[in-house]
Amino acid sequence: MDFIKGKAGMICENCGAEFEENARACPFCGADNFVKSKQEHEQTVSKLREEEQRIRSLPKRVANKTTKLVVFVVLAFIVVGMLIAFLASVIGKLQIKGEYKSDAALAVKLEELYQNGDYEEIYELTKEVSSTNRSLGKYTSVGTLYQKYQYGSEQFKSDLEAAKLFEKPEYLQSVTYFLSILYICEVLEEKGFVYDEDVAVYYFRDAATTFLKENMCLTEEEINTFFERYASIEKRYEDDRDYSFSMYRDDYNAINLESGILIYERLVENE
């Protein structure tokens, strides 16, 4: 696998990620950094040659016996190193070609499912696909939206039953699942639908908003207010180093509690 230099380090030609030049492998896809390996190999050869020169400077009788051994070791090391590098390069390229063919075939199938609106099957087929796989980014995003919607819907039923049973509105903790869907949709739209996932984004945005209105009895104004708070929390956690995880969780839970009280009042107390 070959790498090229980027502004901040190396750019992996396998997944396109940028990482530190001294890394032994790409931290995102695991591809070996042969530039680094080559440098280490050259440094080792250089040290062996320095040792050869040192031995040659010794008294002639001592140097003659050891020089032959060192020269043999140096040559053997160079040959073995070149062979390993060549084999690794060939294996890496074959692996990439195999993965590309596999991804290409999968992309054809996923696009067919996407055109048919079969988001459930897309989710099933992308469960094991890495989030760093840019060639299938469109479908992993769709799979994430589907998973969040399905899980949030089921979780709300469970939360509502527990809230009724124990008479505790704070058990309603599902609002943020749907707010996260709206947030992902907004981020994808702001990026300009890089993978042409606009149809699915509009679908899940509408589905999440409808669920919040019809199943949780929240008004459009309340949804917008909670969403603005949720989005600000997510962005602050991404950008503000002083904003700790505990602070993030407290603000996150505050949204669930406030929305839970409204939902409980409308679905339970007014029955």
3D architecture notes:
- The chain has helices at residues 34-56, 60-115, 119-125, 137-166, 175-190, 198-214, 220-239, 245-269; strands spanning 3-5, 10-12, 18-19.
- It has a three-stranded antiparallel beta sheet with strand order 1-2-3, with no helix packed on it.
- Helix content is 72%, strand content 3%.
- Helix 5 packs antiparallel against helix 6 (198-214).
- It is elongated and about 100 Å long.
- The chain folds into two domains: 3-115; 121-269.
- The protein is built from eight helices and three strands; from the N terminus they run βββαααααααα.
Strand order of the largest sheet: 1-2-3
How many DSSP-defined strands? Answer: 3
Number of helices: 8
Helix-strand makeup class: mainly alpha
Largest sheet: 3 strands, antiparallel
Parts with pLDDT < 50 across at least 5 consecutive residues: 1-8, 90-101
| End-to-end separation | 64 Å
Return the string of H and E elements: EEEHHHHHHHH
Rg from C-alpha positions?
29 Å
- The amount of beta strand, in percent, is under 5%
Task: State the share of residues found in helices, binned by percent.
Answer: over 70%
Can you tell me the number of structural domains? 2
CA-based shape:
elongated
Mean of pLDDT: 80
